[in-house]
Amino acid sequence: MRLLPIMLLALLVPLAGMVHASYTVSGIYVNVMLNPNTSATVNETILVQISNQSLSQYSTSRMALNLTLSDWQHIIGPQLEQHIINPRGSIYDFRFFPGPIFSGRKGYNASIELMYNVNNVSTVRQISPRVFEYSFDPAVFNFENGASGEVLSPNTTLTLNMPRGAQIRSIYPTPDSPIGGFANNYRNVTSVSWNSGEPLTRFTLIFLIHESLSDEVAGFFDGIYLALGLYSYVVVAVIVVALVLYLYYKAGR
Questions:
Q1: Cα distances (angstroms) measured from residue 110 to each of 47, 58, 61, 250
Q2: How far does CA 133 lie from the centroid of its chain?
Q3: What string of H, E and C letters represents the secondary structure of 43-65?
Q4: Tell me: the pLDDT tens digits for 210-230?
């Protein structure tokens, strides 16, 4: 019978640690790099304030190599999640890095990094020779639901980076950064950001990419390869040989 109180005490000690554990998400920074193939590379930084009672738990959890994102959500809270998710696509190359504890003006903090890639965050259509129009799909957002629909979570900054050479054609709501970018129709703007509370229900981002002639030629041969596989090399070799023979014949005349 004496073993029973000891066993109960052994069970209550870990639970006491869990009760006193306290984490506060103080900042969420979602950085999205849009790619010409309609995918996106996402880098999220989540800043967490850690109470004195939670320092040991965080340090121990950080050293455990077998904890998943779901495990960390139970430790930190539901705000520790991926904020760009496509139900019709897939996420790949997911990486998760809980950073070391550092001291700040308001106590102890840590920075948690989430890095991953998401397919099909935008759609694309060709509107003229070598000109492609991309439309971002707001359905991939995974933020808070407000009274009028989805909004950016508190203490959150969302940044979208355009592909190289892209020109913004339409955007809503007006970005918080760069300030006054609308004055010149966002010409030469490569990155736009929105801050906490911004409504996302009518989010719109349309941009154009002008394909160079060399990219068009490369795309043509890529299309042949996708259609014919290794036989495409035979087709190219035949074309090259035929061209050489034609030039040789012309030179001989």
A1: 6, 9, 13, 72
A2: 20
A3: EEEEEEEECHHHHHHHHHHHHCC
A4: 986 445 444 444 555 556 666
172-201 residue pLDDT tens:
999 999 987 666 778 889 999 999 999 999
**Three-class SS of residue 29?**
strand
> By the 8 A CB rule, do 115 and 98 touch?
no
Instruction: End-to-end CA distance of the chain: give it in Å, rounded.
Output: 111
Domain 14-210 has CATH 2.60.40: yes
Beta bridge partners, 43, equal: 31, 115
Spell out the residues 6+ positions from residue 165 whose beta carbon is closer than 8 angstroms to its own: 209, 210
Domain ranges of the chain: 14-210, 213-252
Return the DSSP state at 208: E
This model's pTM is above 0.85: no
Please say whether the beta carbons of 144 and 152 come within 8 A: yes
pLDDT exceeds cutoff 80 at 109: yes
Inform me whether the pLDDT recorded for 75 exceeds 80. Answer: yes
